[in-house]
Fold this protein.
Amino acid sequence: MEHRIGIFTTSPHPRIEYVAMVLCHWWGIKVEVQEANGSTCTPIAYGQSGEGLLLPMHPIMQGELFSDYDSLELNTRTEWSDTFDPLAAIFFCLSRYEEYQSVSVDRHGRFSGSKSVAYQQGWLSEPMAVRWADQLYADLRKYNPSLPPLKRTFRLMPTYDIDIAWAYRERGWRGWVRLGLDLVGGHFGRVKERLAVLFQGKQDPYDVFRLLQQTHHKVGLSAHYFWLLAHQRSRLNPNVSPHSQLLAQLLRSVSAEEANTIGIHPSYHSATQPSLITEELRQLELITGQEVKNSRQHFLRFKLSETYAALEENGIEHEHSMAYADVHGWRAGTHLPFYWYNLSLEKSTKLLIHPFPVMDATLRSYLQLSPEEGRDVLDFYYRQIRELGGPFQLLWHNSSFSKEHRWGEYGRMYLDFLLEAGNAGSMD
């Protein structure tokens, strides 16, 4: 007999339907919202008395506007009070409710992780939405022991943002300006390296694509590559010209690998100028000859709900920007993918969000951690996701391997991590 879970409420709302759909995907069991318990399923009596597991209903699940986040009891761990509503807590995290209410942004117009409720309450490093969901399922199994145990397969997912394909090649007049600045600034190592790449055939320090591919092959990993193809290039959009023939060759080479997935990396201003998404996406599809369904915003810069709506309109199905730049942790309280809920329209969508906890620039540039300290952070999240099961996505840049560009041993640390974590994962 098919296992089913029923959420019974006399006050149905799209937010309740949404959380039921998320739990269905996370648990692998059908979860239905019903107004009366007249079917054979494991019941949750939501916001009412009745048969089954009793849960209170927080006003947020009826569409009410509120700013009293303390009433959600988001510090709750495994011991729940009689007033804690796990469905509301999960919805708060996944919908990014606080980001619709807050005007606290950094100099790039991004919601700051250090201003988030999770950071201020000390649980940003824990995927609490998943832990609440798993605890709820454990309670349901106590009520109905025939429910199967949860089982998720751990999967390491390296992803790369290609802001600048090469440090020195295909840089045009900007490259020569940079050469002059390096001379004036005393960066003679870069000057020597640039000339060796341009005139002596030395490999460009950002050209690590073959090295990455070899590393992935050793441990059987698939990878995502997100390409910045801004037409109006600048300090904020430092990419190689999207019309470069060498770039087209590189893109086709990377996309030809069966294990690779190619995505667009919409430029800095695309967060507020959605037409740029269309322009850059079409350029990528023209180069590769492939339909592109994956995207990650440059600078992790997006605006709810305008940017996500624009991505959906352009046929994007998988979005990979759900993380913070200034701190590491789980921006939406989950490592498991979830469909975006458009709070402005009060409806769920088909845009699947893929969260990740940390990127290279967060470790070195924002937190100024040494490679050894950065490795400790990667190991922390690796152990966490190995325990919970499911995907573990990381963000790195091809430019984060160059010692002349202040990255030191970060590249080697990252490759060692991939080999060790990938080998351990292959033994599952």
